Batch of 3 targets.
Target 1
Amino acid sequence: MMAKPNLHTVAAHAGVSIATVSKVVNGVRYGISEATLEKVLASVRELGYRPNRSGRGLRTLRRSIIGMAIVDPSPTFLADPFTTNLVAGLSNYLSEQGFGLLLHGIKPRQVEASFLVRESVVDGLCLLLSGSAQFRLQNTRLFSALSHPMVVFQDRAADGIPDTCFVNQDDTGGARELAERALTRKPRTALIVIPDIFWPAIELRLEAFWQTLKAAGVATKIVRCDESDPVAIARAIGDSIERSGMPDVILGANDKIAIVALHLLKERGVQVPEEVAVTGFNAFASNAYAGLDLTTARSPAYEMGELGGKLLLERLESGAFESRERTLPVQLIPGATA
Amino acid sequence: MMAKPNLHTVAAHAGVSIATVSKVVNGVRYGISEATLEKVLASVRELGYRPNRSGRGLRTLRRSIIGMAIVDPSPTFLADPFTTNLVAGLSNYLSEQGFGLLLHGIKPRQVEASFLVRESVVDGLCLLLSGSAQFRLQNTRLFSALSHPMVVFQDRAADGIPDTCFVNQDDTGGARELAERALTRKPRTALIVIPDIFWPAIELRLEAFWQTLKAAGVATKIVRCDESDPVAIARAIGDSIERSGMPDVILGANDKIAIVALHLLKERGVQVPEEVAVTGFNAFASNAYAGLDLTTARSPAYEMGELGGKLLLERLESGAFESRERTLPVQLIPGATA
DNA sequence: CTGAAAGCGCTTACAG
DNA sequence: CTGAAAGCGCTTACAG
């Protein structure tokens, strides 16, 4: 097997200098004669030359790589459809622009040891954090100290984090719309079911649910559960019903919770939405397979990923983010359950 | 803002040579005095020095980056739980070893234009391809021409693809077990429902279903459908029932299909598994939320990702793959539907 | 135990 | 229109 061709190999083969080959390969077309262009292109093809990004990166101090750090305790950090769609949108946008996406799931305790933190590998950083507000802020600061331009997804814009844009979905607006839809059924009592782990999006949804229902004079209870376990979700809802009676409406903080609620109600022979209305949040395509027509809100996760990539590359180009924060609308999906 | 510190900055600060700093940073501990070590470490900390991977990569001709190319027509190429789990396993393994994962979804027509193909960015390549056998082989050859060590997931080992290991799950074994389980219900007729897109795994499952049922003398029909659309799946199954009557067992090529079948049967008031047994394939956690107790098989996707990463790094170390092909077992998940 | 020096592959400002 | 040369940040074989 021959050694990998480099600029020198190609230059020798084409009978020109490496500077000329470099220009041709980089699409610099002025100051290159037609004949030279042809010659070089032919050599590139014949030798199967591929520019080495380390060389270019060293010279230009640009690597054309964006890091995506997902801090999550679960090994299957990609399992959540929100994350999946976000990463897909980001990855596709970056690919189109010739940038690579370095995907890095990090356990909460291992952030400092991560090579993304310890070494200089990327031109910019995207962050998706879980955990308490304090823990997230602490990690945001840690990454911020690396002085890369950053896009932080689904978190509140914080002070003292320079060169960063916060990209969010409008959880508040979406939750308000869902609560308002539920209100058309004239409920007197409501149950809000949220996960017991901290998540800024969940806090916003809870707040919007709560305020909207309160303003309408609905007696509202809140119950927390381990959303990673359907049995735990069902138990939490069941316990609440036992204690406080059957609510007129159940607002799930996400679709997983709503789906479990739906099954629990069906088992008990409760009519949805006539007796109890149910709503979810963050609709993704998979619901359709379960034959559910859940009233929910569609997350713009994919578009958020695309936007984050766009903002980061524009920032790399221009030297500064245009805005500190961007929020994408959440779309109400009217279904048959509320 | 100060410029990024490099080896020279640190060396000057610590009053040593860059060679010494390099050794310290890389954990070379022999031939370094305790005093020097301390001094350098302090300077590294104080200046916030992070080694630049482009520099190291250029020098060592190693980049510590593995590429994962997923050739898929859909923009949400990550949506499938198999893919998600595979990528998570791969990513986690590589991270632990200090390697980065460059994730790259590629549309079938754009493979040749991809920067993963046109430029030299990675030390090794993982491939997950969709499309016909011919198309997959063509792309495998294309990537193979890049002369990176490769791990190809979910595809038949092909000739003329050097320096490559094929990592598969045992679709044949899993499908046989599922079919055998269905046979305990003594069916006379069976319906196999598969997607209309080409996928090596689907072909293997179909073949194993077919052979197992045939050997038992079961009259078996096959129907294809657009698995991306639950309505299309339901229509395909409904049409088949119309034409050929209700089968005693429905074998879905995957869980999505089985779940739609389950809902269709429930709507028609058919008892599962008493009247019709149903099986799926590639169980992932999300089924539990739908309150389904589907008889299916669990995919070792996460473990396949880990194994792929492990094989690739071992290959980088040793210079050659130990084996040409690896197959991971699929686990039968006995449920209530068959 | 320590450092000077070569060189990995590339881009770019400059001279011709 | 073309090329010689400097230098990006790093590692390593070698000399001292």
Note: The CA atoms of residues 80 and 131 of chain A lie 15 Å apart.
Target 2
Amino acid sequence: MINIGILSRQADISAKTIRYYESVGLMPEPARGGNGYRQYTEMDLETLRFIRRARDLGFSVKEVGDLMKLWHDRNRASADVRAIALNHIDEIEQRISKLKSIRRTLINLTERCHGDDRPDCPILDDLVKGESAETRWLRDSPRKG
Amino acid sequence: MINIGILSRQADISAKTIRYYESVGLMPEPARGGNGYRQYTEMDLETLRFIRRARDLGFSVKEVGDLMKLWHDRNRASADVRAIALNHIDEIEQRISKLKSIRRTLINLTERCHGDDRPDCPILDDLVKGESAETRWLRDSPRKG
DNA sequence: CCAAACCCTCTAGTATAATGGAAGGTAACC
DNA sequence: GGTTACCTTCCATTATACTAGAGGGTTTGG
């Protein structure tokens, strides 16, 4: 069992923020010592690191909460949890492909404007337009009957 | 040339928010008609869609601004822009792999807890932990300097 | 013993990212 | 010419996610 300060250093999240996460239900209420100090376990550290990872990726506290629920509620109604998890996985995969799309936009930028001072670089005209190069196939190929 | 309402509908972003983006420098100041109405072009629509994509992915307004700069400043100092773009691409790739890590966490959840009511499901013990290699945690950190 | 470094709760303030509403001008249609 | 749907600016408010500070108790070490 460790105090909040140690946990704070281990997860690189301030003690204030840890208490805040507790107040909004992201972190569970920990056991208390006789002195009233919060007593954390190794699992709390992992939880906090999970939260940190997800927050860093731009998931809102509420969204992280949803992911956390999946994670903590895994002991009961596993079938439901599994379904919800698959849903979240799907959303994350969409997110990944959108990121890939933005990456592709930027890569095209660097490839088209390859270090000289050419005045035009028609990225907008054919790349960002229509969502991205990655989705241009939507226009050009049928893909679905 | 289109008015803000049309642009708003095309990009699925409220007129209020478009003006807000203008006020914080994300959207360029558009031309004005004789009536003072904002006059937008096709490119503004693309710009707005780029902003929307990036914001949806959790990039802050400032970060989106950085991406926008790359995009709009491509006409001058292409070499520098290229370097900065490569940097951003790198960051985005890191982001993608972090997302993949979270996805892996969730996939493992569904695989381990495969729909029955088994009480334990040792995801924490070997999965989320694996992300951060420093699990030499409880070896009592120094508490005083 | 006492100071420094912890910890506690509670309230308030900040930054970000919008969103709402007032007050009024403009454009389109009947 | 009136009504409705636009548009304008400016100021206020909301929601989210912390962050700071007051005021006070606890633990550790010289």
Note: The two ends of chain A are 60 Å apart (CA to CA).
Target 3
Amino acid sequence: MDKLELFDAEKRFLEILWAREPVKSTELARICQETLGWKKPTTFNMIRKLADKHLLKNENATVTALISRGDLQRQESEALLQQSFQGSVPAFLAAFLEGRRLKPDELEALKRLIEEAES
Amino acid sequence: MDKLELFDAEKRFLEILWAREPVKSTELARICQETLGWKKPTTFNMIRKLADKHLLKNENATVTALISRGDLQRQESEALLQQSFQGSVPAFLAAFLEGRRLKPDELEALKRLIEEAES
DNA sequence: GATACGGGTTTGTCTCGACAAACCTCATGG
DNA sequence: CCATGAGGTTTGTCGAGACAAACCCGTATC
């Protein structure tokens, strides 16, 4: 995954795409019209821009994402971790715990994840 | 903490401030000149903008941050968690583990943090 | 062969953040 | 007094992202 920098509008658009894909481009334009208030060219411009970035493809008037929601989440998490916590997950959690307590079931879930990661 | 949206240049600047504060405004201008290549007005404009946002104060030509590095980190972490993981720390960790394995000492550190959080 | 519609692109406007040239004011010292 | 430097502000340029008006092309329907 190369350098990936998504802007706000791009994220909003991708959320819509992920919820519906694969979807026809004109259908997408209609949905964006309704939910984001975008005119047709705005949607098509967005499609082309993201296609140029290889984040989706538009073939035979059908749009499909080439990146998954999970991929993007991971990528953004990594970025935050690198930028703010030198890439350290414990540092992230530590900073986090100073601002908010976790609920018992969250703690349990974390423990289980860590046990699994140890194997 | 109200709505907080920091731009890239603002973060870069704050990193410098945190490393040196409290510091005289002209000194800051000199450092930004060296490290960021900024001219004097750029630095002063930044100071004023962040002062307007109550993120720092400039009194008697001495600049002091009103927000700590940790506060900003926590705030950004929260934002990412809310936006991408419905605020769930376990969901964050789970997504993260799919992309990268943690080192043994990181796992140990996490365990200790969780134990402390349980008390 | 006019009209309509699906599937687009070209080009331009608007806003906003990043940055800086030129200017201002006051204190100090030669 | 006049220069110099500290400590600023006003104003404007530049670039980029968000968005859209107007246009284009093929097909198919009347």
Note: Chain B has a mean pLDDT of 91.
